[in-house]
Amino acid sequence: xxxxxxxxxxxxxxxxxxxxxxxxxxxxxxxxxxxxxxxxxxxxxxxxxxxxxxxxxxxxxxxxxxxxxxxxxxxxxxxxxxxxxxxxxxxxxxxxxxxxxxxxxxxxxxxxxxxxxxxxxxxxxxxxxxxxxxxxxx
Length: 138
Fold this sequence. Notes:
The protein is mainly alpha-helical.
């Protein structure tokens, strides 16, 4: 299968390149999200927030599950429930992340557990090594 062409905005990369299909949608998300938020936020911060945190909260919505099952994408995108469900997802994400961050800041046990998870099943070291290989640092 041919890789899709991605046209980057001129301020990112002044060319059209071939990109892996599974990454093409991530590039599109990053390109669109870059104009939404201000401050020192990395592409990863923004991508994780939109594609994992907010999308994850919206995937929990029984209302949205039912609407997606019974409507076209266009009908779903025009749902009168969208603003309310989006606001709920944002508030739920803020509450969950604030609660977890507060507990992590206040508890050595939580930080130790996070360390064990990051170096175990989350494979932080391996992911960092992979990034360093991609940057030619090894």
